[in-house]
TrEMBL record:
Chaperone recorded as keyword: no
Keywords from the UniProt entry: Hydrolase, Nucleotide metabolism
Source organism per UniProt: Candidatus Adlerbacteria bacterium RIFCSPHIGHO2_12_FULL_53_18
Protein name per its UniProtKB record: dCTP deaminase
A single GO BP: dUTP biosynthetic process
Any GO molecular function: dCTP deaminase activity
Stored InterPro entries: dCTP_deaminase (IPR011962), dUTPase-like_sf (IPR036157), dUTPase_trimeric (IPR033704)
Record-linked CDD domains: trimeric_dUTPase (cd07557)
Pfam families with a match to the protein in the record: DCD
Length: 183
């Protein structure tokens, strides 16, 4: 079961769901639209020869921060990380991040596999943006990029995220900063 717009609004007002900033005009019948932020991480292809997740060999990432009036050109076949402008989470609900059908129809994926936000995880979510089209897609900070759905839990979870997740924006920034210090 997923929350309706009425129940999402009630849960936000009661403090059971955090959505900052909350804008009632972005409520859909059973979801809430989130906006694209200004921060992106792209792979530095010139210094990354391969990725081996088993050996924890990851590519060098470059952080790009745009002004609100700037755009990001996402070229075909490229995958980047972009962050939501909205900060959200809940101790009481499982949150799922879904693409918007209007963007999916033009070939924009907003997540490859990381669609779930577990209870207790509060964040500006990393979006795995990928252009499956054969022409570039223009991304604007502040555009509606994805939608959230909220599912109640059958019982309180035994485990709960209480700290920033290991793949969060803060840790990626820390990873990039650490790499720069080593040079």
């Amino acid at each position: 079961m997923m929350l309706s717009d009425v129940d999402i609004k009630k849960a936000v007002k009661a403090g059971a769901i955090t959505l900052k900033p909350f804008d009632e005009s972005r409520l859909q019948p059973a979801s809430y639209d989130i906006l694209l932020g200004n921060t992106f991480f792209v792979t530095d292809a010139h210094s990354s020869s391969f990725i081996d997740p088993v050996k924890k060999i990851y590519p060098k990432m470059i952080e790009i921060t745009l002004k609100n009036s700037d755009v990001f050109v996402l070229h075909p076949g490229i995958s980047i990380l972009g962050y939501s402008r909205d900060f959200f989470g809940s101790d009481n609900y499982l949150i799922e991040v879904n693409g918007k059908s209007s963007l999916a129809r033009i070939g924009l994926l907003v997540h490859n596999s990381a669609a779930l936000v577990n209870p207790g995880h509060f964040l500006n979510i990393a979006l795995e943006l990928c252009n499956l089209n054969n022409v570039p897609i223009i991304l604007h900070p502040g555009m509606a990029i994805a939608q959230l759905t909220f599912s109640p839990l059958s019982s309180p979870p035994k485990q709960n995220y209480k700290e920033v997740g290991r793949y969060s924006k803060n840790n990626i920034k820390g990873y990039v900063a650490a790499k720069k210090r080593k040079k």
